[in-house]
């Protein structure tokens, strides 16, 4: 059965409801009340009818183009709210409930930024949502529980013609390098990127998407909503907390659904390898998994290798991992690899902006996972100073052009012009991503972010590279839980490392741990550290996607607001 040729997600939903009314569209695995996961299916017909009811309610209360926030849990109700908002011609703003730990300020900031006066939620969240809105002096007069809207109001919806170039939703950035901004994703953007994604990952009809990624994030939204709607795919949906509590649940869902595609950041693969025991592995059949996408920046080779080794006996194919690159400003996906390719580069040359592949005698090379080739779009590596394409093998800023590149930032015309309205050799509209990369062997390799670069004594240092060195300097440091950043003082720019103490670490001399970090970073990078701060487990600030926020870490450090175990 061929996919319908339509240009917006609500129309695709209606088409699949007409073609496959009684087929399951969403299979919700709910672990809140049942440790084994209570499974609730939603058919294409029910999906369409419930989204139409939401659209009918909104149509009589909200003007077209007005923002409508979604503050709901990770259930089919979230999908219904999102598609209902799009169908009504309003601007959906996918956010999260106020009980997400550590992100209340970001939620309030996002709501103020978008100016939403209407909030879609559910009965189990409405009290907390209303209290949060009132406490932050945000509008609370139009809060509706989408799970209480009767399907009978759906037929009263008057169809709206959706302009492909109109804003469909605002994708708020995670805030890893600053305050979150609302990326304006149009109806045409999301359909184009869904087409690029299903092509790259070969998501044909019969494929199943499995996801615990938050629906308020670009990758979660693409995996559980946009890509399934494009090709009529069934999606298995679970809550992020269900994965964190027991990562085996995610793998069990993959095992139970042959022909599955899923995605996760690098830390999740390493987390599975360390937390899933042999008894749980014995119940898994992972030979039917088609693709496991990893869009971390950068993708961590060690995480992939640990996952492969841990689940090889479960039938996991060695080439199932698909390292990728993307960002919200390009809807999500930009490049994808067919399988992991790791290249070793001379660390000093790479810091100087040249990708020189390491030879057998190169001491401590920097290993980088390739992120593949563009998916139906153009990618160039550009010299930020000259704004001209870099020669092969040179590191520069990644620029992207294609139908998936978003319209800009909500309410920020100057930032929009700087990021989105760039000309390259007199050609088109290019997005300057702020990410650094290099093309080697026709594949894009991500090396870092311009804003994150640590520049000391005229030399560039990639923070993630320094962080990996610090984390492996001593057994008392928790893996994948460090932040390296630059601070400016009277003597110029210098580097600081914050690192979390390992949860199960035995007693160690903190001075010895700090000394080990200093020595390792100095030896490998030639970088003297101004400060090394050890902090308790789970105390470093994170983005809502779980990544360490270097910007927030730097702010807390400068404000003296860290709960330090040791500093030196």
UniProtKB/TrEMBL annotation:
Residues 452-564 form the AMP-binding enzyme C-terminal domain. CDD domains: FAAL. It holds the Pfam family AMP-dom_DIP2-like. InterPro entries: AMP-bd_C, AMP-bd_C_sf, AMP-binding_CS, AMP-dep_synth/lig_dom, ANL_N_sf, FAAL/FAAC. The keyword Ligase applies. One of its GO terms (biological process) is fatty acid biosynthetic process. The keyword Lipid metabolism applies. GO terms for cellular component: plasma membrane. Residues 15-410 form the AMP-dependent synthetase/ligase domain. Keywords: Fatty acid metabolism, Ligase, Lipid metabolism. Belongs to the ATP-dependent AMP-binding enzyme family. This is Fatty-acid--CoA ligase. It comes from Actinokineospora fastidiosa. The lineage of its organism: Bacteria, Bacillati, Actinomycetota, Actinomycetes, Pseudonocardiales.
